[in-house]
Amino acid sequence: MATTTDNEVSTANGHETPAKESFSDAVRRVVRLRDVIAILFPAALFLGVGVLPPAMREQLAFSTADPDVLTALTSNFAHADSTHLFRNLTAYLFVVPTAYLLSVLADRRQLFYTVFVVVFTVFPIVLSGLNLAVPRNALSLGASGLTLAFVGYLPVALAEYVRRRFDVVNVVRRILAGGVFFLGLVIVIPLVAAAVQRALAVALTVVALLAVVVYGVGLRRSGIDRSTLRGPPPGFLELSIWSTAILVAALIAAFPTDPLSEAGVVNTYTHFLGYALGFLSSYLAVLLIPKFEQT
């Protein structure tokens, strides 16, 4: 439901936007130079560490045999070689700007920055620490776990964006966020569990699919149909599709069927932790913190 005046539209969820604001106008209005600089800073840091001599980069690695807090942090910003750096940098530059654009177009800039700060200050320690739960003698390097945390945030950002731009009831964002997350699990589980036990992969995939169906039914009962998608001007729906494609592509790339690479073994355990914790932390923040729950 929307009430139209001469200059603006006041939607049922309490936000106001210029009447019939085009996608390009909306992007120009919400994107800020300082935000772009903030997003590019970690990428520049990855590149800066990447030009260090191999011996110095190895000293930044987190050793599961001899762990310490400093390398638990630094290992997330260093990479084994140029190929490893290129892959993680590419993933970062696709995922994070997409999450940012969804967030600011949903009037959730503060939520994005909260996630951004937590991912780069708390998650390195958490992900490195949780690697100690799997006994092995290994060196850990790379920003992929942090990027997967942003992938985990994508379902929440997408749900906030749909609530804001497609004028749907507030409860839909919770249903949509959960549904998109479990859709990601449908992709991840077969890739990860099949290497361990195919029967387990099948069972877990069925459970994830059932969850997606349940969330889909919930969306339908909430009144979401094709007419909802025709609400905003061209560009807004396309961003939703692009965001979903980025999530799917990032998950497929993060969980290769063959984890062996020239740089070493792909740490799919850390990737899964990043994705799951990135979603849970941002989802719970929206539900439990009043300033994020506001409509």
Automatic annotation (TrEMBL):
It is found in: Membrane. One of its GO terms (cellular component) is membrane. This is Rhomboid family intramembrane serine protease. The chain crosses the membrane at residues 36-56, 85-104, 111-132, 138-159, 171-193, 199-218, 239-257, 269-289. It comes from Halorubrum distributum. Keywords: Membrane, Transmembrane, Transmembrane helix. The keyword Cell inner membrane does not apply. Residues 1-14 have a biased composition (Polar residues). Gene3D superfamilies: Rhomboid-like (1.20.1540.10). Residues 1-20 are annotated as: Disordered. Its main location: membrane. The keyword Transmembrane helix applies. InterPro entries: Rhomboid-like_sf. Signal peptide: none annotated. It is a multi-pass membrane protein. It comes from the Archaea.
